[in-house]
Protein 1
Amino acid sequence: MAGRAITLTGTAPAHASVAVHLRSEVRAPFVASVVTANASGRWSVRVGFARWAQYWAAASGQTSQRTSTNRLYPTTLRAPARVTRGALYSITGTTRPGRTLTVYGKTRRQSGYRALSTVRADAHGRYAARRYLTEDLSYRVVGDMSSSYAMTRVQVSSHAPARVRRSGKATVVVTVTGHATPQSRVELYTQPYGHRWRVSRTTTASASTGAWSASFTGSYDTAYLAKDANRTASPSRWVQIRP
């Protein structure tokens, strides 16, 4: 990880002076530390590094093989908790500048994660992947390291006419439509003017498109909203009934 100190260890003749050499992306080789091996010939030293670094040790006229350490950048992930079905949204985060990442996703119906797309971080390590939401999706992003898991759920939507005319009848039919998680149960709530909200009907969203529809008979101005299996609520829609 960036900015961490690492411990180098090795063996040399007992009580020998060990010169530990370091070469990095931005520095020519230099002696980072000189330590003394113990009676068993073992030695260790802690050194810091910022990015890629290469190390080797020399003692009693002999030089060790070289070993390298690469900096690992954590991968962060941010995403909206809920998005209306079919909407375009972005998942964002940070990782190694210029790093290509793989986005993995899994729906509720899938048993495992699968690769969805790749995206490249900019010079500051920021990335953004844009997606259209079709159903609840859990995902992670893998770069130098894997991000934490996140899930974006379908936000139920609803649509209704602003006004309905009676056309001489005492009651009218109001049709409310929307989208939700495919094949999920949708509860329709109504609130006639001056009354409280109540569950008036349930329906099931289409297994393929997530679309749903419900019709109501009424004679008063009424508000409508829907709740889906994720317990998310759509915006309420007032429908005015006019002569």
Protein 2
Amino acid sequence: MRAIAVAVIWSALVGIVAAQDTSGPSTALPPSPPEPVITWGAEVDVVSKYVWRGFPYSQGKVVWPSAWVSARGVTVSLFTNIEPGYDPALNEYDISVTYERTVGRLTVAATYVRYAYGEGALWLATTELVGRAGYAVGPGEIFASHAFDVDLYRGSSYLEAGYAFTRELGSKSTLSVDATVAFWSTFIEKYAGVSNSTIGPLSVNVACTRQLARHFSVRPHVTLSRIPDARVRILLNPPAATFGLAAVLEF
């Protein structure tokens, strides 16, 4: 009887193991590699003209070297402007720190920006605080941002709202589009001395990123923009379109 009992138990154990085994190779996917804690990158962007918030800041093409590092929602970046033929050629550098967080469909960000720019032998500097909120709708997001100067142009305020989306074009290309409307608030008065002008530039930005290697991509882009207020448009005389090509390294 004892031998029979042992045989029955052994057969039951073998049956359980056989039931758990699969007849073919495992179809479970290998675990995906963990997201890097720190990411960083650099790019060089060649642009047909430097235009910032409707203000043209160059006579012709400029080169924008920049670099950034991100970790745990915080991004520190450095932007520089080089204008060939201008003295000094390197006439601006901006340092910014951004904290971004996403909760469900809502993404919020707060940014500190320190601008330093040269006009001949004279160098000036100012500081802005920028808040941004985006809410995912459809293939993209509705967003709004508010920048206000707390230094040299204290009281200057610039608001922007619009819709942005990104779409994959195959396995190596990405299309990014956004359309925005800006509101001068006191920005145009502080920077150009023009009052009673509310609506700022209406803009459409289109960019296509093409991955050429694991860490290297290129990004041609175009910005179409128009200032509705004829007085300001004549005063500033910005181009209707600017074009650029960026080379990007990202790790």
Protein 3
Amino acid sequence: MLSRSAGAIFLSLCSLQLLPAQTTGVWTFVATATSPPAPGSQMVYDAARDRMVLFCGTTVWEFDGVHWIGPIPDPVGQHRMWWDPIASQIRQLHVVYSGTTPVSASVRSWNGLGWSTVGPTAPPIQRLDEGTFVYDTFRDVAVWYLGNNNRSDTWEWNGISWTQISAGGPVPRTGESLVFDEGRSQTLIFGGLTSQGPHNDSWTWMGAGWTEYFGVSSPPPRSATTLGCDPVRNRVVLFGGEPAPNTALNDTWEWDGLAWTPVSTTGSPPPLTRATMAFDSLRNRFVLFGGYDATGNPVNQTWSYQGASNQIASFAQFGTGCSGGTLGSPALGAAPASLPRLGATFQMQMTNIPATVFNVPLGFAGFDATNWNGVPLPVPLDILGFTGCQAWIAPELAVALANNAGTAPWNVLIPFDLTLMGFEFFAQGAVLAVGANPGGLLFSNAGHAIVGL
């Protein structure tokens, strides 16, 4: 077995296997001339105007990627906001209370200066002061989980009225965190606090019932954590939270739909609870603001987070093969519609090779196409008896392939792991052809593969 620290690779008789490493990410402190004074209760990205919109008490602030702009007075309070991709506007559910009882509710729209009423809606019975809210952009409904008071209710709003969909699911709790996972079209709950203490369970909702993920890799138990969805990398990102009273964490985890993976980050915000985070689709990054430290003091710092970079899978041919005698040049390429995508089997194939059982095809793989043991590539192979042939890559491993009537498939198994995003490798083929040249091998052109989506 051979390996590389950049993404260990090993050889089997039929395939090249890429092995994942730990997920990585970068937190960057964003220094701003001014900043909202309060931790902030909710933040949403306005894609139409390229602004983060943050609700702070009785004011609204906006972040343009460099500066915070505000305050904009908004005395009504109790905002629950979401981005409406159909209307290309931020929406808000505004509730009017009589004491702690909701008596009316309306949906409003934000234009950068203030809110305007879109239409009325009837609230769930005396429950709107509780629970956690997200907006399901796939089904165009609001999803409200209300786990207080020893109840576990799930309600949905379809733009006209609220309906209780479920009375089961997660154990009743407070301090749970919800996010809408756009890539998987489902709402995700993580953690929260019950009488037994903090939890680290994960549940998903797609409109019919809650599904718990038993026995999966998870962060340590906590409440008041921060969740956000990265639709570009198809990941949910978790930061911080409260594992016990008067404590806070600053670890980062990512959810791929099956399990949580710890992220080894460069930089990090301080330990925080109840921070707010939203994804900036223009700059391909999260913005995190506010929260509280371990002693409950408000924090008004701004941070950005980027995970493993997005990369489109690609395969490019380069160089030329060599011929000998009556035999043409072997050709290496990708099988039709096959690319080195995460979570898929990438198939290369060598064609134009002699079809007898004596003509054994070989595949060579490596990580460099610029030099081989200090010698610039390509390297002529005439001195080895392979007349007119060239090495286009620095080979680090070789594999015998099957000759299927003149075509040799070569499978590369690529796990669905973001640490392999952008990973590069090079390949070249050869075939045993006695008499074609003194060395008895003909070599193909080469290929350059980049792992991506």
